[in-house]
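Hi everyone, sorry if this is the wrong subforum. Our group has a chain we'd like a structural model of before ordering constructs, and none of us has done structure prediction before. Sequence below.
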Amino acid sequence: MRNIYKQAENVCVWLGETDANSELAWGLIENLVDGTETAILTIVNDKARKDKFEALKVLFRRAYWWRVWVIQEVNCGRENGREVQVFCGDRQITWRELLKMSENMKKKEIRDLLVTEYPNDPTSIYSLTGGGPLKLGLSNYSDGPEPPLMELLYTHMSKLSSDPKDKVYALVGISSSKEIETDYTWSVYDAYVNTAWRLINATKSLDLICVSQNDSNKYNLPSWVPDWERRSVHPNHRVMGLHIRRMFKAAGDSVAICSFSDDKKILTARGFIVDSIGEITYPFYMEGDNKEEKMVHTLKAFIEWWRLFLFTKGDSHSAQEEFRRTLCGGDWNADYDKHHRKRLPIFCSLIKDLCKDYRLLGFTPPEFESNLLNEVPKGKEDKYAAVSAASLRMHSKCFALSKGARSCFTPRATKSGDLVCVLLGCKYPVILRRVEKHFVLIGEVYVDGIMEGELMDAFKKDPSKEPFKAMDFNIH
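Answer:
Right subforum, don't worry. Here is the predicted structure as tokens:
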């Protein structure tokens, strides 16, 4: 397919027929393409144009933008200076112009203004500042013309295909990972297992095994093999992996020491046990029919998580910071989450307002530093936005304390007694479950205090000794 698009004289994109929304959106696009930053800010700030921005969101959510194969279409079609033409009914614009408009929307001042125009609505902010043509960029992690396949798989996890194998195959031709076979006679099982096996061997990294975006194992894959099909028990709220936040380095600069069984069903990986899971909360899922119901649901989950933490760790200011980091899987925030450092007092303020039975739930707000309290936003919408941003990251996760009192942000399937492990060549700690004489991978885990390789010095001094003794994990 890549050669077809590279050799084509013209490449045209068809977004579909026009409708009332697309006509409104097209008029807005024409105003935004060549506008100065000041002019665009004026347009964004114009309340009378809100319906046009709503229409642009709808246009940027059309089915075209979700197809995995079109990534090749637009990127290869633009090689050698050629122009791709975009059509919506009888409307026409070049890809270059549409991309310029989207990049204008990403500028900081414009994005900050959109955050105020769409409070408590991160999906709208993302659609307007990262959707449309920006959604079809090659890689979120590098700028090269042929990124590694792993980068492309990470970047386009949310894309759709009629054949699940194409979630991989559609990206191989535009990647630097030419060693990956694309055989349509294979089953989905064989395609995904073979891809994982070859990528691990080629990269000497186990980061790939941490990708888990589904709540079921439809293809009966080994637990270490990612299922790239977009499918979830909660399809409206995809699980956000740690790689979306930032690249950690729990295993330092180590490379994977691993091998595979002849049938590729078993991955044997070297690493060490850090701890085991002690107490754990129920998994949190984003639920609710309206904004306030969703808020209350999230706040009550926060109360459960905080109570577990408080009993063991206390509520000192350093403990509060530890809980704040763990609550969302690290000291990270999205562009729309401008109050992330005030997250705890914001949660507590809303609990008092919306959860009238909070004392019956056993919740007592901690004492916060005065300077932190002074920075808490006064407006309800800003507070709602902070909680919404956190709930996206809490979705399908649990809070747990290890038996060694480490704060953990774990996959929903984690159970008490599961092992917290660091595998060589893996940026993220993982949860492994011992099943008879082998292990099953439950998923990646954020463990406060070990994400930057803090345990690796002790491990390297003598891998043959406790507390971090090297061992080989047979993962099925």
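For your construct planning: The chain has a mean pLDDT of 89. The chain is about 40% helix and 15% strand.
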